[in-house]
Each structure stands twice: as structure tokens, then as C-alpha cells.
Amino acid sequence: MQAEDALIRELAAIVGKEAVLYREEDLIAYECDGYVIHKQQPLAVVFPATTEEVSRVVKLLHQRKIPFIPRGAGTGLSGGASPRGGEVIISLVKMKKLLHVDWENRLAVVQPGFVNLKLTNSVASKGYYYAPDPSSQYACTIGGNVAENAGGAHCLKYGVTTNHVLGMELVLANGDIIEIGGVPDAPGYDLMGLLTGSEGTLAIVTQITVRILKNPEDKKTVLAYFDSVEDASYAVSDIIAIGIVPAALEMMDKTAIEGVEAGNYPVGHPQGLQALLLIEVDGISAGIEDQIEEILTVCKQRNVIQVKVAETEQERAQWWANRKTAFPAMGAISPDYLVQDGVIPRSRLPEVLEKVEAISQRSGLRIANVFHAGDGNLHPLILFDARKPGETELAARVGSEILKVCADVGGSITGEHGVGIEKQEEMRFVFTEEEIQAQTRIRSVFNPENLLNPDKLFPKPSRCAEVRKAASHL
User: Fold this and answer.
1) Both ends of the chain: CA-CA distance in Å?
2) Structure-derived torsion over alpha carbons of residues 109, 114, 120, 123, reported in degrees to the nearest 10
3) Could you please report the per-residue DSSP string of 27-85?
4) What is the pLDDT of residues 14-63, one digit of tens each?
5) In angstroms, rounded to a whole number, what is the distance separating the alpha carbons of residues 163 and 324?
6) How far apart are CA 347 and CA 161, in angstroms?
7) Phi and psi of 355, rounded to 5°?
8) Peptide bond preceding 184: is omega within 30 degrees of 0, i.e. cis?
9) Cβ(148)–Cβ(199) under 8 Å?
10) Does residue 183 carry a pLDDT above 90?
């Protein structure tokens, strides 16, 4: 206890007494992120306000060999910001400034605690926006988006976070401050590609330079209703096959539609639908109407029940609010849910959704599918009741089984939510032991003592890997 008290005093000397939490009642809120199945209490939570303060905090913890975890808004869905127990959480929410906008070069410089949607709102007056738009964009931070390589509904056409990050300022695991990237980008290793999506295991991002885009000249949004998941799935591939890459191409099945209609932003979707597609195209005005006509034709060829184009911006916004609040809306039809985010080849959608339904029937748990259909990024929401003994564990097993299906058809275990704690063992679905070891060696270059967000992302070595490692030292 004396050592802990001394640590708290030293942390307070760096960031101020009011910027350190250490009492049990204050730490409860930091036991987990959006992945609520795993909960452990941190040793303390510290709130630095500058890069220099982050550096000093990290140097102190590194010197004392105390593990630490960077944290943004806590909206992550894989446990990436959840403690294993005894770490110090470095919360970056006070570092929330928009530092600079370069209109000529179309870039902005932000601190990691700057909220995603605030960037678009901040540059909208001059006709610009920030493209990555995860559903939690009203709350999630750009630093967290970098850690998870977040995507969003409009990333089919414009790419995920890594496609919009131009430079970073970082605090390394020993407290050193470095800068990478920038404009123009220097030749050499793609360190920004490596850091983006590394889930806080390589460095703490304290400043980010991002690309901002000019608003498209025009956009149109289509809502299409189907009485067959299979028809809706084939329509997705058909739209891409005719040469149209929509800005967004989203899908919801019957259970997901039931959830969003019971939520806070109902649209009035007809009852009994098996699936819907929400499709948006944007670009130069001259070609938009032609694209819409081609999309309508494809939907009709796939037995669409009804298809309509948003007539006003208000109607379009209502449709998107209905889609983007789908996750929390599931609380209206289920006490608990677990969401996965496997990725599959777009052409395998009908087959995989059929297998997901079979898993649902076999397990007895309802599964709502709401996802980025255009790039094959599934979001099956496994509905369960944590009050019933064994259902939480069953939901986790169902999630793992779905990820195995995704991997088996040539996909991946995560598209944007990350691995964190949740999917560590599932890493073996897509990587060999040798490939996992290669990745852990890269981590060791940046984080040699595994103090920075420890024991995340990678599975524990299998027994055979341990034997091989021991043999290599003989």
C-alpha cells in the first residue's frame, strides 16, 4: 500500500491531484470498455493534458515496471482498453483539441481525444468532412479510431482510418516522443500502417494528422426491402459487379429490423421483412441519377418488394439514424448482446448468412445481422440474457463459431472492432504459430517489456510453440 500511495503522489505531481483516480468507487467505470463480458479493476486512472505529461507518466511507469493502457472514449468492442488487473489507465480524453486545419492541403491536426464527428462538424462550414464514420462517431475519439483502424458505413468507397491518417506524434513504451509520417511522407518503412490498428500495443498516439475531403457535389440514398436474405445478398454483389461502388451499402435482416424499429429512431419499415439494403451513392451530379436507375434495376431483378429514394435530407438523415443506432437499439428486444465483426468475401454472403442462421438455430440464441454488406464486414449481434446461467458463455462460443465460419471462407476475424481480449485465441483461425510469433517480435521492438497494453491482441503461445522456443535455446 505504501508503494501504491507513493505512485499516486508521483502521478499527481505530474498531472495534478484532480487528474488521478485511485479510489475503488472511481475505478468501477474503468473496469471495461464496450466489451462488458470481461471486467477487472485498474490500479489507477490518470488524465494527462499534453504530450509532455503523457511522456512523463510513461517514463515513471516504465521505470517502476508498472503496466499501463492508453484509453480513449471507452467505446471499443473487443476489450482493447479493458484492464487485466493492476494496470494504470492513461485516459486521453483531456487531449481533445483541433489543433490546426490546412485548407489548401486538405488536412487537419487533432489530439487523440478529439471526437470523430466533431471533426466533420468543425470543417463543414467550408464544405469539408472526415470520411471514416463508425456508428459510435458521436462519442468515439480519433485516437481510438487509429488504435482499432476503425471503419464505418461510408468506408466502402473511401477507405478506413488508415487511408486517412497522414502523420502521428507518438509516445513510445519508454516515454520517448517521436513523430512519423507527415506531408510529404518520407520514404522507408510504412510505420503509420503498422501503428494504425495496433490496438495501443506499440505506442501511445498523442497527435494525429488526418486527411479531410471536400463534400461530394451530390448524393442519393436508396432503401430497398426484400422478403429473402438471399435476394438481398445477391443484390449487393450485383451492384458492385455492374461497376458501381456506392459510398455505402448496408444490410439489416429481420431481427435487426425488429430491433431498430423498437429503438429511438424508427423509420416505419414494413413488418415481416426478411432484409433491407440502405444504399448511398455520391459524386458529380451528372452521373448520380444514372447510377440510381441501375441500382433500382438490380434490386428489381432480385425480387425487391419495395425500393425508394430519399426525397429530402431529413428523410435521408432519419434512415441513417435508424441504421447507426442499431447496436444500442438491440437493448429494446434483448437484455444483453454480443457483437462480432468478421469479414468475408462479398460473394460468399448468402452462404455465410445461411450458416449464421444455422448456428442461431442450433444454439437457441437469436442473432441479428446488421452490417457493411458492400465490403463484407459482418456485424452479427448475438442476443442473450446474462441473468441466465451459462448464456454469457454460450454467446461467446457462438461468436467464436461465427468467426471460424468467416475465416474458413477466406475472410478475417475482425474488420474494425479489433482483437483486444475477445478474439485473442481466434487469431489462430487466420494465422499460423510462426506468423503470430513474427508479429509478437515486431511488438517487442516497440514494447520490449510488454508494459504497454499487455497481454492483448495475441494468443498465449501454444504448448508446441513453447517447446519449439525452448528447443531453440538448447
Assistant:
1) 42
2) -50
3) HGGGS-SS-TT-----SEEE---SHHHHHHHHHHHHHHT--EEEESSS--SSSTT--SS
4) 999 999 999 999 999 999 999 999 999 999 999 999 999 999 999 999 99
5) 22
6) 24
7) -70, -35
8) yes
9) yes
10) no
DSSP assignment of 192-219 equals HHHHTTSTTSS-EEEEEEEE-EEPPSEE
Strand partners, 204: 171
User: How far does CA 474 lie from the centroid of its chain?
Assistant: 43
- Coil, helix or strand for 327? helix
Instruction: Return the residue matching grid coordinates 466533420.
Output: 120
401: which residues sit within 8 A by CB, 6+ positions away? 359
The whole-number average pLDDT for the span 312-324 is 97
- Distances from the Cα of 61 to the Cαs of 11, 66, 198, in angstroms? 9, 5, 21
pLDDT band, residue 462 (cuts 50/70/90): low
Tell me the C-alpha distance between 278 and 218, whole Å: 17
| Coil/strand/helix, residue 165 | strand
What is the amino acid identity at position 175? G
Q: Which residues have C-beta within 8 Å of that of residue 349, sequence separation ≥ 6?
A: 233, 234, 236, 237, 373, 376
b/e for 43-71, b at 16 or more Cβ within 10 A?
Answer: bbbbbbbebebbbbbbebbbeeebbbbbb
Question: Hey, what's the cell of 209?
Answer: 494528422
What does the block give as the cell for 116?
A: 470523430
Look at residues 440, 456, 436, 459 and name the one whose alpha carbon lies nearest to residue 147. Answer: 456
- Using DSSP, state whether 229 is helix, strand or coil: helix
How far is Cα 299 from Cα 365, in angstroms, rounded to an integer?
31
In tens, the pLDDT along 128-141 reads 999 999 999 999 99
Please choose, from the candidates 273, 258, 374, 272, the residue with its C-alpha nearest in 3D space to the C-alpha of residue 322: 258
pTM: 0.94
